[in-house]
Amino acid sequence: MGKVVLLVIFAIIFTWVAQAQDQTSWAKRVDTGKEVVTTLQFYFHDKLSGSNPSAVQIAQAAGTNNSSTLFGALLMIDDPLTIGPEPTSKLVGRARGLYGSAGQTDMGLIMVVSYGFTDGIYQGSSFSLLSLNPAMNPVREMAIVGGTGLFRLARGYALAQTNSANSNGDAIVGYNVTIVTYV
Ligand SMILES: *[C@@H]1O[C@H](CO)[C@@H](O)[C@H](O)[C@H]1NC(C)=O
Ligand SMILES: *[C@@H]1O[C@H](CO)[C@@H](O)[C@H](O)[C@H]1NC(C)=O
Ligand SMILES: *[C@@H]1O[C@H](CO)[C@@H](O)[C@H](O)[C@H]1NC(C)=O
Predict the structure, then answer these.
(1) pLDDT range class, residue 22, cuts 50, 70, 90
(2) Ligand 2 mean position to 166 CA, how many Å?
(3) What is the pTM of this model?
């Protein structure tokens, strides 16, 4: 009996000392240990053609037209995100940001894009994707580096696969996204 009481007292003292070491007046550390994994599936509509494109070229280098990969081209996008691949499918958000051709010998788009959502509990939440998109690969893996709202402190990845594309460069891309956040 005495041993158990002693052990409990030691445990209490140890916890108290450990906590005290973690606290200062200006900073605090809490180990919640609670991760949340969110998976998302949606389609990204990148439209370069027509009178109302969602992707517009805003800059290019002097030699861009001579490059087979259009190295140096920079585009601004405001692309709809929908549940299904059809453009008329339910809108759940928009992908806003930049992509540019960053590959001289093979197609590599540098993506700096915020994916913001407007549906359900995800309304007002966004994640930030910053990654190279090897656009000619059947499946492109891209890194998610942060987020807001429900995606605060997000880290994760997106797997993107082209659903359809035409000769104007318009493309509909399927995304499977896995994001880890904290409670
Ligand atoms: C692009 O190619 C054309 C024709 O080959 C050439 O005259 C021109 O100098 C090149 N422009 C640049 C910026 O490299
Ligand atoms: C590049 O090509 C586009 C489309 O063909 C043309 O509109 C543009 O003027 C060209 N730019 C340069 C710098 O040659
Ligand atoms: C995305 O998920 C769907 C459904 O699980 C699957 O059919 C598809 O192959 C996945 N695509 C990629 C690129 O992972």
Answers:
(1) low
(2) 21
(3) 0.85
